Amino acid sequence: MIFRATELTYRYNDQIALNRLSLDVRQGERLALLGANGSGKSTLLRLLDGLAFPESGELLFAGETLTEARLSEAAFTFQFRRRVGLVFQNPDAQLFNSTVFDELAFGPLQMGWPKERIREQVNRTLETMEIAHLRHRSPHRLSGGEKKRVAIASVMILDPEVLLLDEPTAALDPKSQHQIIEMIASFGGAKTVITATHDLDSLEEISDRCVLFESGRIVGDGSAIDILHDVDLLRRARLVSTHRHSHGTGEPHPHVHLHEPA
């Protein structure tokens, strides 16, 4: 197991975000975290990335307990940050350099890479992510889709074993959404990818397994097909709604509609 979470509880002030949550994530697995806003998906990603720590329970990464004390150890932190990367839902939360080139170079610089290696890897990653034309632009003057690709590129340049993605296609145009989905789909077994998402349409492409969150707990666990066919479970988690329509016969029929929670 790359991650093993056991009975995790986490609160924001008095509000429970994770409620004795347990979850195993296998190495090389593409896992989708589903749920309405406030269900605990983003909180779990923060714990998996070592940005926050549970008030109770245990979280293991590659067999080692992930704690604030452990992450205060320079050697462990260096290896952990090299192996695990998080892309925030809002790219403005992680873009802070003056140019796109500098944004991608920042992580390798912190890792002590030689300058020539950094230049080569930045240029390669810019080409791979189809953002080479943005290299001298300020990240904060880019479109939403461009910012998201730069944020992902700034994590991907370190070639992490584990990629944590928080709503990677949110607020993107259809072309940018398709590019991000194709990228996640391409990892198939090469990386562990954990994606928090509302996008039910792309589940089969981006995941081998889905877990469904409700009020800080996992209430569903299975393949994309299993989850998508459990309409009652999706309705309970506020990911679908059911409306009744009449088709001219006078007899109303129920229909399931997918919608992105507010």
Walkthrough of the structure:
By secondary structure, this protein is α/β, with parallel strands linked by helices. The chain contains nine helices and twelve strands. The chain has helices spanning 41-48, 74-83, 100-110, 115-128, 144-156, 174-187, 203-206, 224-228, 231-236; strands at residues 3-12, 15-25, 30-34, 56-61, 64-65, 84-87, 162-166, 192-197, 209-214, 217-222, 240-246, 252-258. A six-stranded mixed beta sheet has the order 6-7-8-3-9-10, sandwiched between helices. α6 links the parallel β7 and β8 (192-197). The protein is globular, with a radius of gyration of 20 Å. Mean pLDDT is 88; it is low at 252-262.
Quick check: average pLDDT? 88
Q: What class would the helix/strand composition place it in? A: alpha/beta
Task: Please give the share of residues in helix.
Answer: 25-40%
| Largest β-sheet summary | 6 strands, mixed
Q: What CATH architecture would you give?
A: 3-Layer(aba) Sandwich
Look at the structure and give the CATH class.
Alpha Beta
Q: Secondary-structure element sequence?
A: EEEHEEHEHHHEHEHEEHHEE
CATH topology: Rossmann fold
Q: Give start-end ranges of low-pLDDT stretches.
A: 252-262
What percentage of amino acids are in beta strands? Answer: 25-35%
Shape: globular
What is the total number of structural domains? 1
Number of helices: 9
For CATH, the homologous superfamily is named as P-loop containing nucleotide triphosphate hydrolases
The N- and C-terminal alpha carbons lie at a distance of 34 Å
How many strand segments?
12
Specify Rg, calculated over alpha carbons.
Answer: 20 Å
Main-sheet strand order equals: 6-7-8-3-9-10
